[in-house]
Every structure is written in C-alpha cells, then in structure tokens.
Amino acid sequence: MDKSAKDQLVNDIENRLDDFFGDEDDPEPTAEVRPSMEKLKSAVLSIDWEITDACLNDLKSEVESLLPYYEKEPVTHALLRMLRALGGYIRKRKAQAHQDAIKRVMSVFASLESLVNNPQMDESRRRQLVSKEIIAFKKLKEQVEQRRVAASAADGAATGEKASLDVHAILEHRQFQDAVNAVEARLSSQVAALKAELASLQEEIKTLKH
Amino acid sequence: MAVVNIRKKEVQIKIVYVGPGRGGKTTNLEYLFSKIRHRIESDMVSIKTQGDRTLFFDFLPFELGQIQGYQIKTQLYTVPGQVKYNATRKLVLKGVDGVVFVADSMVAMREKNIVALKNLEENLAFYDIDLYDRFPIILQYNKRDLAENGIDILDVDTLQQDLNARLQAPFYEASAVNGVNVIATAKKAISTTIVSIQEHLG
C-alpha cells in the first residue's frame, strides 16, 4: 500500500472512530520516551572517581538498558558496545587495568553524549566520531596485549629463577603455578574478548562506509 | 486472521486484551461498553469466577460502521490473566488480529508484566505469529492513578524498558477505572489493526 493510500485509510478510520466513540479526548500516544543518559553519565563519572563493583555494575546495567533503544542507530550502538567492553575489562582487572582504560571510557561517553544530544549532526561527523574512538580503542587493546605478553615473560623469568634455586620448592608450590595459569588464562580471554569486540566494530564501520 | 467477505463487503476483526491478572483488562471493556452501549445492538458477555475474576473471557462485539465501503465488525476479547489459565488464553488468541497489552503499573507487578508479555509471545508463536514482526499491538500502562493514593508505581521509563524496548509500540498511560485513555487505547488498537490487515491483503 503506498503512503497516500495508507494516509487516506488512517484518516477514514479515525473519522469513523471519532463518530463512533463520540467526542472524547483523543490524545496522541504518550510521546516516545528516550531513556535519559543522565544515569549512564553518573555511572561513568563514578568510575572516574572510584572503581568499585557497584559503579561497574551500574555502568553495565545502564549500558544494557540503553542498547535496545539504539539498535537501529549503528554509530550510537557501536559506542555503547565499546563502553560495555571497556567496563567489562575494568571490572575484571580493576586497579590493574591499563591506566588509559578509564580515559577511554570518558572519551567514548563524551562522544556518545555528543551524538545523542545532537540528533541533527551530519552523518560524516558521526562516523568521524566513532572512527576516532575505534582507533583509540584498538590502540588500547594492543597495549593491553603487550602488557599481557610482558607479564607472562616476567612470570616465566621469575619461575625460572626460582627453579634454578630450588626446583623442589616450586613443585611443592603447585597452587602458585595453578594461580599463575589461571591469571594467564583470564588475560587471554580478556584479550580475545576485546579482539572480538574490535572485529565486530570494524565490521560495522565497513558497513557504515558502504 | 480477519474474516474478510468481499461479496458482502464485510471485515471482521478480533482484538484481544491481554496482560497480567487483575491488571484491568475487563475494566477496559466495561468502560468501553458503558460508553457505546446506547449505540450498539449487542451485549457484553462476561464469564467470571466467584471472586469476580475472569474465568473464561469477556466478549464485546460491535459494528463500527463503514470504512472505505467495507462494514467493519469488531470483536473485543479479554483473556484471564492468571498464569494457570494459559489454555484459555491460547484458545482466545486464535485468529487474533491485534492486541492491547494492559500492563499493571504497580511496582509489585513488574515481574508479572514481563512474564505476561513473554507468555503472549509464546502463545502467538503457537499460531505462527511473531509478536516482534510488525504485529499490531498497543501497550497500556494502567493504574497510573494509584500514585495519587500513595501506592508505588513504576515510572514510564521502567515500563518502557521492561516491555517496549524491543516492540517500540504505541503506548498510553491510563486509568481504566476512571476511563482515562481507555477509548484512546481502543481507537489506536482498532486503527492499527485495520491498517495492518489492509497491508497484509496488499
């Protein structure tokens, strides 16, 4: 059905309904309420002040509550997903998180806020904003990976040194080795998650460019 | 699916009010009936339990009149909201053309609203209807008046997030017991349903 036919049909239906039901007030449906960014902003600012489980949980839940509203806006959605990934990383590493991770959260939120508050912003400027964030995100990911490799090497060296001193002592401290392995596995999974997030964002950027 | 009789130029549409138990579905229909009873020939049929709750369904049929040469016959139903009456709900939803989801705004009912919407999705899927694929549905956030009596109610943002984030359907804040937005909800449901039927028929 073309638009004019549809408009005509809607008009006819409304006239009939008005006649049938009388002159009762016929308000428009409540205007679509976009969720406020204020709660997310408060969660982001809390993290800047103090990294606690409560703040990070707030960030996660606020981002997740906003995601469905922006499903059809890929640029905004990408930034929200980036925030979620960064929040997840900080949540796992807390004080050991990369020093730039919080800075990234702030920057991504600033871009997000700018996008949401300026619906008239032209598409090229929107893409530019998200591209800038993706490049910085990628850089952070590389740095996290480098740190992971360095940490693994340091652990290896420490283990080697200890081994040369007393192999039996290490064998007796199997729990320590298990803990090191667990930490390594966790780091690997975080890097893998960041890689996956990045790949997905890059894919989205490609789509946007086309 | 709507019954369309091309020869007689008649279209029969079925709209079902669903939602959690004691949410105000029957009150919606009773208010509508009180407003239109003087101009319709039919009566409203309600089958209730002793506790005044809907056991089977409420049924309010009426002829809306002609739209673009077609006589529109409308049937409004409610279903019992209580979880245990799912077989009845499923049965009443057979052949449904549009839905009004009556959510209860009370904080204590938050979970039940979500469960009821999920149940609607499952029951529609039984008839190969995808609730999230342009199915005509209107949301009504009922009992907004309770806030005036000091009862905790959910804010609209929360209701939207719980129930309408994916649907993105038109919604009304209402007080069925006072008739606030009851007719507006019904009008929107009828209009959305007729347009959807027309689009399906091509």
TrEMBL record, chain A:
Organism domain of life: Bacteria
Species of provenance: Desulfatitalea alkaliphila
Taxonomic lineage: Bacteria, Pseudomonadati, Thermodesulfobacteriota, Desulfobacteria, Desulfobacterales
Protein name as catalogued: Uncharacterized protein
From TrEMBL, chain B:
Classification via InterPro entries: Gliding_Motility_GTPase, P-loop_NTPase, Small_GTPase
Transmembrane segments: none
Gene Ontology molecular functions: GTP binding; GTPase activity
Alphabetized Pfam families for the sequence: Ras
Domain of life where this protein originates: Bacteria
Name of protein: GTPase domain-containing protein
